[in-house]
């Protein structure tokens, strides 16, 4: 392990693939909780946690965990006893920083139908160490929620947020989806205004993507669904950005907004530290069905087949289906691609440092900002002229420190990012 890797932050992602009901737009790896082998799954997860931790110790790559994120699926459908045992296993197997950000994804109406049940569940979460909740609200309009296939109502969101606040959770993300077929930009802004009334510490905003293999994908193929035009989608996105910035939120990543802290000039303390691992080329251990990880320069992905997952762990094997050791170019390419998602962009120094951490990196010894800039453009010499073209059009800022997208550049971010892939 390189010295650079020793300095990197590290997190754990745990995938819970169970939902009350799969939404009409969802292409994530998930299936109905009813009748699914949830207990068998958490038992298998505990085996994977222990195997992965043992491998980390054997390889000398075990280091403190800064973030834990339990996603899905809908982790809040899991029973408390299974979740508690799972988290105990994580804490026994890894060294978890006492100040680690610990996020649980939850959907409204899955935390408990009765107030007392919900309060007890939230108390149990706090006892486990969970200190951040991420709620899939998507819309505050009941007709749109029904159209999306969501199981909750706007009234559920209001009631749940009231109880969440009463229980002392002070770091909550709410998801907002826009560009839903039949929805106008004004509709999306009304949803946003209702979400702002809850004063969430973090808001994630996404336009609806129609994916193959989903009910919406089938409807689109049959001509039964008309996607919102790109121009309208982009106009709504920028209106949302302006409104959130006016409301005191820091737009720190293309789709993510964090409420500013006491010092409005400092980075918000409510930024998602776990998602920052992905954007900063830090390391994360993926656990569970279909989960991905990035450890010591190796990207891996677990099997997405539940029976294969169970079989591997019954045999004492990690359920890894794919594995790839990053080359130097993989590292710098991924650093630029993910770094450009951040509003501050990517610095030449961090991109070149990622390059040099790979086993096959050319020997470089940059000592100054100018050296890092020259190294960067030596690697991406073929992309330089086209990048300058984007800069001339006001879509990309290129300076002595690095690169970042402009507000207009975000609209064609994938085209710009593809220069460096």
Instruction: State the CATH topology of the largest domain.
Output: pyruvate-formate lyase- activating enzyme
Q: Can you identify the CATH superfamily of the largest domain?
A: tm_1862 like domain
Estimate the strand proportion: 15-25%
By DSSP (H or I, 4+ residues per run), the number of helices equals 16
* Overall structural domain count: 2
Distance between the termini: 25 Å
From the coordinates shown, what is the CATH architecture of the largest domain?
Alpha-Beta Horseshoe
Low-confidence stretches: none
- Main pleated-sheet profile: 9 strands, mixed
Q: Please tally the β strands and state the result.
A: 17
CATH class of the largest domain: Alpha Beta
| Helix content percent band | 40-55%
Based on helices, strands and strand pairing, what is the structural class?
A: alpha/beta
Could you tell me the radius of gyration in angstroms?
22 Å
- Provide the residue-averaged pLDDT: 94
Shape, per Cα inertia axes: globular
Strand order of the largest sheet: 9-10-8-7-6-5-4-1-11
Provide a descriptive summary of the structure in words.
With 421 residues, this protein is α/β, with parallel strands linked by helices. The chain has helices at 3-7, 38-59, 80-93, 115-128, 142-148, 154-166, 185-196, 215-221, 230-246, 273-279, 306-314, 328-339, 348-356, 369-379, 381-392, 413-417, and strands spanning 10-16, 18-19, 31-32, 65-72, 96-106, 132-138, 172-178, 202-207, 249-253, 256-259, 283-287, 292-295, 298-302, 320-325, 346-347, 396-398, 402-405. The chain has two domains: 3-279, Alpha-Beta Horseshoe (pyruvate-formate lyase- activating enzyme); 346-421, Arc Repressor Mutant, subunit A (Orthogonal Bundle), CATH 1.10.10. It is built from 16 helices and 17 strands. It is globular, with a radius of gyration of 22 Å. It starts with a helix and ends with a helix. The model has no long low-confidence stretch (mean pLDDT 94).
């Amino acid at each position: 392990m390189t010295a650079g890797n020793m300095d990197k932050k590290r997190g754990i992602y745990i995938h819970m693939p169970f939902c009350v009901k799969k939404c009409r737009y969802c292409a994530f790896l998930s299936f109905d909780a009813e009748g699914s082998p949830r207990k068998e799954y958490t038992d298998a997860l505990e085996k994977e946690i222990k195997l992965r931790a043992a491998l980390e110790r054997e390889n000398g790559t075990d280091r403190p965990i800064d973030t834990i994120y339990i996603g899905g699926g809908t982790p809040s459908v899991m029973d408390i006893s299974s979740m508690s045992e799972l988290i105990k296993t994580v804490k026994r197997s890894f060294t978890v920083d006492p100040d680690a950000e610990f996020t649980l994804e939850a959907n409204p109406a899955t935390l408990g139908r009765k107030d007392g049940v919900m309060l007890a569940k939230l108390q149990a979460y706090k006892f486990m160490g969970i200190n951040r909740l991420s709620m899939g609200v998507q819309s505050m309009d009941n007709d749109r929620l029904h159209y999306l296939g969501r199981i909750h109502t706007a009234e559920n969101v209001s009631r749940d947020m009231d109880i969440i606040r009463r229980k002392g959770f002070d770091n909550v993300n709410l998801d907002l989806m826009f560009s839903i077929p039949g929805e106008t930009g004004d509709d999306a802004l009304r949803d946003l205004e209702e979400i702002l009334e809850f004063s969430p510490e973090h808001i994630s905003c996404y336009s609806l993507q129609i994916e193959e293999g989903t009910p919406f994908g089938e409807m689109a193929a049959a001509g039964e669904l008309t996607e919102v035009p790109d121009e309208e989608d982009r106009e709504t996105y920028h209106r949302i950005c302006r409104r959130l910035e006016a409301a005191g939120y820091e737009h720190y990543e293309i789709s993510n907004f964090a409420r500013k802290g006491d010092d409005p000039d400092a980075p918000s303390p409510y930024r998602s530290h776990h998602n920052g691992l992905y954007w900063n080329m830090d390391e994360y251990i993926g656990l569970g069905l279909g989960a991905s990880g990035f450890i010591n320069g190796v990207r891996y992905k677990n099997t997405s087949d539940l029976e294969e997952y169970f079989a591997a762990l019954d045999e004492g094997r990690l359920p890894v289906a794919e594995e790839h050791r990053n080359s130097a170019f993989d590292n710098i390419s991924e650093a630029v691609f993910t770094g450009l998602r951040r509003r501050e962009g990517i610095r030449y120094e961090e991109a070149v440092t990622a390059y040099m951490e790979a086993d096959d990196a050319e020997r470089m010894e940059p000592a100054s900002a100018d050296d890092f800039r020259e190294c960067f453009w030596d690697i991406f010499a073929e992309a330089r002229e086209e990048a300058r073209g984007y800069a001339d059009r006001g879509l990309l800022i290129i300076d002595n420190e690095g690169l970042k997208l402009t507000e207009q550049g975000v609209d064609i971010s994938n085209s710009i990012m593809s220069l460096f892939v």
